[in-house]
TrEMBL record:
<dbReference type="GO" id="GO:0006913">
    <property type="term" value="P:nucleocytoplasmic transport"/>
</dbReference>
<dbReference type="Pfam" id="PF13516">
    <property type="entry name" value="LRR_6"/>
</dbReference>
<dbReference type="GO" id="GO:0048471">
    <property type="term" value="C:perinuclear region of cytoplasm"/>
</dbReference>
<dbReference type="GO" id="GO:0005829">
    <property type="term" value="C:cytosol"/>
</dbReference>
<protein>
    <recommendedName>
        <fullName>Ran GTPase-activating protein 1</fullName>
    </recommendedName>
</protein>
<dbReference type="InterPro" id="IPR001611">
    <property type="entry name" value="Leu-rich_rpt"/>
</dbReference>
<keyword id="KW-0677">Repeat</keyword>
<comment type="similarity">
    <text>Belongs to the RNA1 family.</text>
</comment>
<dbReference type="GO" id="GO:0005634">
    <property type="term" value="C:nucleus"/>
</dbReference>
<dbReference type="InterPro" id="IPR027038">
    <property type="entry name" value="RanGap"/>
</dbReference>
<keyword id="KW-0539">Nucleus</keyword>
<dbReference type="GO" id="GO:0031267">
    <property type="term" value="F:small GTPase binding"/>
</dbReference>
<dbReference type="GO" id="GO:0005096">
    <property type="term" value="F:GTPase activator activity"/>
</dbReference>
<dbReference type="InterPro" id="IPR032675">
    <property type="entry name" value="LRR_dom_sf"/>
</dbReference>
<keyword id="KW-0433">Leucine-rich repeat</keyword>
<keyword id="KW-0343">GTPase activation</keyword>
Length: 299
């Protein structure tokens, strides 16, 4: 009888896996789908349409063209419960010019659906500064007033993209605040984007306004001490910061001292990554003193 019971359990587990009860996630992750035409996207659309209570859509590791994106978008217009868009690396091998219209279509669909996003991940899509224009409207819309995690790692943003992004985040905060529910972004990821000083400084301004950040990952962005100092000042207004990753940017002494001053005020910090940041001796001493004085949660 025990054997039967275990078989029943196995069957139950299988059927639950099929209906995806609970997590509300539909995944096409890593399927290397080449979706160019509306026809190519038929199966994806069918699954989206038939999925009740869709909360998370994974499209990573596929390549989606403009026409396919538009029909997928159409299917998303009815998905008001969507909260998480795992859309990294979904434009493999696409022309840069194809990405903004695809993103605009998908973003407009989320706005139409009345979705309230919690996470938007567009990492590893080489869209460059123009690509930000593709989801700028989405970021400023009510669909993103609830956003907690924004991930844009390795997107080729550059200074221009960083500035557009910062302006969109500020606008989102302004509009959501006017509705009585200010944007409370927790996680911001934008490593490997050549943001440099001007991009970092623009984003620092947005961070200072937002004030709810818990994790900031901006490694390898060619940021020097002016940008690092601007970020340090913004971090000081984000008392919940737990993780600060600025690996492989050039602090030098000035940046390191500014960051050390901020670290003295932050009480929740658990992880600091300032590796390969050329903090120099005086900078290292300043950071060491800050760590010694506070940061009792450091892991």
């Amino acid at each position: 009888n025990r054997k039967m019971a275990s078989e029943d359990i196995t069957k139950l587990v299988e059927s639950l896996a099929k209906t995806k009860v609970g997590d509300g996630q539909l995944s096409f992750k890593g399927q290397s789908l080449k979706l160019n035409t509306a026809e190519d996207a038929e199966e994806v659309i069918k699954q989206i349409e038939e999925f009740d209570g869709l909360e998370a859509l994974r499209l990573e590791g596929n390549t989606v063209g403009v026409e396919a994106a538009k029909v997928i978008a159409k299917a998303l217009e009815k998905k008001s419960e969507l909260k998480r868009c795992h859309w990294s690396d979904m434009f493999t091998g696409r022309l840069r010019s194809e990405i903004p219209p695809a993103l605009i279509a998908l973003g407009d669909a989320l706005i139409t659906a009345g979705a309230q996003l919690v996470e938007l991940d567009l990492s590893d899509n080489a869209f460059g500064p123009d690509g930000v224009r593709g989801f700028e409207t989405l970021l400023k819309s009510p669909a993103c007033y609830t956003l907690q995690e924004l991930k844009l790692n390795n997107c080729g943003l550059g200074i221009g993209g960083g500035k557009i992004l910062a302006a969109a985040l500020k606008e989102c905060h302004r509009k959501s605040s006017a509705q009585g529910k200010p944007l409370a972004l927790k996680v911001f990821v934008a490593g490997r984007n050549r943001l440099e000083n001007d991009g970092a400084t623009a984003l620092a301004e947005a961070f200072g306004i937002i004030g709810t950040l818990e994790e900031v990952h901006m490694p390898q962005n060619g940021i020097n001490h002016p940008g690092i100092t601007a970020l340090a000042q913004a971090f000081a207004i984000n008392p919940l910061l737990k993780v600060i990753n600025l690996n492989d940017n050039t602090f030098t002494e000035k940046g390191a001292v500014a960051m050390a001053e901020t670290l003295k005020t932050l009480r929740q910090v658990e992880v600091i990554n300032f590796g390969d940041c050329l903090v120099r001796s005086k900078g290292a001493v300043a950071i060491a003193v800050a760590v010694k004085e506070g940061l009792h949660k450091l892991k």
